[in-house]
Amino acid sequence: MLHLIPFTKNHYQTLINWIIDEEILLKFAGIGFQYPLTQEQLDQYIAKYPDRKLYLALDDQENPVGYGEIIPQEENSARLGHLIIGKSQNRGLGLGQKLIQALNNESKSHLQIKNMDLFVLDGNTPAINCYLKSGFNFIPNNFSISYKDKTYQILKMTIVL
């Protein structure tokens, strides 16, 4: 089982170590950060978005395995953002679903969130499959981003908690 703790400056290097290339950064954060991820970028991000709830997910042995954010929206809704299972050897083991479940439970119990959304890069099949298994469904509200002369479709998914 995973449990969440607030993400602090003490955890920056863990997250930075997980972002090993530009592709992972793009899947993790879209165009919100520049590669390589730095402590300064994280400081600026946290200062710019103080209402966002940032969490580190720990396994039963208290090892960091994932990261995710709850981004408050309007009318008892929120969005999950910047989801990652850190080390590649931990991916594909169901930890993503456990991370989402922990974030959704946190949202319901402490923030009274009733609807949760998320955005995902089209073609990020492992993430999409994880979100579908977690109960999210696609909704029509897609857009695109451009990065290094390439356009990426962003898909929106939602779930009622």
TrEMBL record:
CDD domains documented for this protein: NAT_SF
Protein origin, superkingdom: Bacteria
PROSITE patterns assigned: GNAT
Entry keyword annotation includes Transferase: yes
GO MF entries: acyltransferase activity, transferring groups other than amino-acyl groups
Domain N-acetyltransferase as annotated: residue spans: 2-161
SUPFAM superfamilies in UniProt: Acyl-CoA N-acyltransferases (Nat)
Keywords annotated in UniProt: Transferase
Keyword Transferase: yes
Protein name, per record: GNAT family N-acetyltransferase
Protein source organism: Pedobacter cryophilus
